[in-house]
Amino acid sequence: MSDLPACPQCGSTYTYEDGEMYVCPECAYEWSKTAATSTDDERVIKDSNGNVLQDGDTVTVIKDLKLKGSSLVVKVGTKVKNIRLVDGDHDIDCKIDGIGAMSLKSEFVKKV
User: Fold this and answer.
1) How far apart are CA 105 and CA 109, in angstroms?
2) pLDDT one-digit tens code per residue, 16-66
3) 3-state SS record for the chain
């Protein structure tokens, strides 16, 4: 039995070492050995009220948001369904009816 860690992406147990990296032959995911030994502290994204957000949640905009380079405005109370959490300053990716795909900051939304 191998003492190598399972793939964090697909869970495969057939991982192998390649220099300073672990490699999964099933999904081709590569990660460093130091990342595999460190603790897995995942980033928690919260809305304006402190509720934890997850992928697929529905949120409501709490402030009028002007879109740069456009005359469009996302109005207060706009419901945004099926959000996707991402890394970065604008940590929510979504589609808003009448506007299209955009990124939002979690501090300007509240969970429904």
Assistant:
1) 8
2) 998 888 998 988 888 888 765 544 456 789 999 999 999 999 999 999 999
3) CCCCCCCCCCCCCCCEEECCEEECCCCCCEEEHHHHHCCCCCCCCECCCCCECCCCCCEEECCCEECCCCCCEECCCCEECCCEECCCCCCEEEEECCCEEEEECHHHEEEC
Say how many residues make up the chain: 112
**Taking a C-beta distance cutoff of 8 angstroms, is the pair 42, 91 a contact?**
no
CA atoms in the 13 A half-sphere facing the CB of 44: 5
- The answer to whether 5 and 22 are in contact (CB under 8 A) is yes
Residue 2 has pLDDT above 70, yes or no: no
What pLDDT, on a 0 to 100 scale, did the predictor assign at position 55? 93
pLDDT recorded at residue 36: 54
CB 62 within 8 Å of CB 108: yes
- For residue 99, give both structure tokens: 């506007």
